[in-house]
Amino acid sequence: MSTVLKWIARIVGVLLALLLILFVVAAAIPAQADPDVGEEHGAGASSVQPSYTGLQREFPALNETAVNPTTDAKAELGYLLFFDPVLSENNDIACASCHQPDLGFSDGLPLAVGPDGTVLTRNTPGLWNVGYAQNLFWDGRLDSLEAQSEVPLTHPDEMGVSDTAALVAEVTAIGEYETMFNAAFDDGVTLENIENALAAFQRTLITNNSPFDQYAAGNVDALTPSQRRGLALFRSGATRCFECHTAPTFASDSFRVVGVPSDDPGRAAISEDGSEGAFKVPSLRNIALTAPYMHNGSLATLEEVVDFYADGGGRVHGQENVDVFVQGFELTDQERLDLVSFLYALTDESNLPAAPTAVPSNLPVIAPTENPARAEVAAHNVGGDSGIDLTDREPMTIVVAEGESVQTAVDRARPGDIIEVPYGIYHERVVIDINDITLRGIPNAAGEWPIFDGENVLTEGVIA
């Protein structure tokens, strides 16, 4: 019997030794890297360019055509043409009449209005960063700014040019224009070159230095704590805003059904495979300047837009083909404020061209427009422009004070800090958006630990 036990012990020993060897070998094998998440998955994707926050990535190439590379001469010419009513049938409306610079290159109206008061069918889209778009108009009917420029020129309810040859002759007769066209193009004034110049100017309307961009470059103080929390919500699995509004343009060239009440077929009228009621995803850059919103201007404020998506979009109106990413979500009042505040952080008018005081035709130039949204932007974007390096001070311990939220303490933290949370029950969702932070619970005298209680509401994960 003892011999059997000895053999059993030997076998068990050998098996344990083999198991130990397997553990050692397994530990020595490098772990397989996580796969990159593609850019099409938005600002929450992992395949972004390196920066402090992991948000900074390069802008796409401009949508230039091979036959019309942008030059300074073309852009300067296009700038004057954009503001000059000479391009309209009755010399009474310019491109800038509907795409007003002070209104984010939109017009502040729910629906565009023609020179004779005719109300058109869609909201005037802004033009900031239009040079990155591959599909133009709400329904994506065209793919080049050159082709797009001709549509309003000749549309009877817009600039209304009925004889393009007469327009070319009228522009040629203006000496300053003739000189500028000859300098910019080999063949002088033509309808095609008018469109080429307008396209070249529009490609200069770039916005890329908003508080968000400064934050993405590493200046955490460029955003307020509220805006940082709003960014986390924007990127979260709760709202999924980033799925369609992809950094760095905060747009995409896809077409989505969000369910705004409307009988407009949208993309379905343009493409056989287009969904009924689908429209191009607009950029959120300078969105705070371009109210009202949606393809029909039916939502007056950013707060209304957030509420619309929180309700699940068109689902509340019985629409069945609403996009899969528009599922609805719940926000506290503070989170709603935070998300809207982040949208203000996408504002940057540093490249805003001033309207010319005069144009070569000597026709009246549109007057500057007062945009009350600018005051709101200034009130929200107070994060600072110090460029402080987050490693400037030594790590420290921050204790959550009595009556203070944990989030408030977190918002004061820097990398390496320890945040001590005394005993208590905290009804909040805490967003930590910087690295190397330790959140440490401190028990009371009875040995009871602090509790985060989301009350079955504040329990969403954040994609960061």
Report on this model:
The chain has three domains: 39-59 and 208-344, Cytochrome c-like domain (Cytochrome Bc1 Complex, Chain D, domain 2); 72-207 and 356-367, Cytochrome Bc1 Complex, Chain D, domain 2, CATH 1.10.760.10; 397-452, no CATH class. It has 13 helices and seven strands. The protein is mainly alpha-helical and 464 residues long. The strands form three sheets. A three-stranded parallel β-sheet has the order 3-4-6. Strands 1-2 form a two-stranded antiparallel sheet. Strands 5-7 form a two-stranded parallel ribbon. 29% of the residues lie in helices and 5% in strands. Helix 2 (72-83) packs antiparallel against helix 6, helix 4 packs across helix 7 (191-202) and helix 10 packs across helix 11 (333-344).
Instruction: Compute the number of strand runs.
Output: 7
State the helicity in percent bands. 25-40%
Question: Tell me, what is the CATH class of the largest domain?
Answer: Mainly Alpha
Side-by-side strand order of the widest sheet: 3-4-6
What is the domain tally?
A: 3
pLDDT averaged residue by residue: 89
Largest sheet: 3 strands, parallel
CATH homology-level superfamily of the largest domain: Cytochrome c-like domain
> Could you state the order of secondary-structure elements as H and E?
HHHHHHHHHEEHHHEHEEEE
End-to-end Cα distance: 63 Å
Strand residue percentage: under 5%
- The rough form would be described as elongated
- Quote the CATH topology of the largest domain: Cytochrome Bc1 Complex, Chain D, domain 2
Low-confidence stretches: 34-51, 459-464
Reported CATH architecture of the largest domain: Orthogonal Bundle
Q: How many DSSP helices?
A: 13
Structural class: mainly alpha
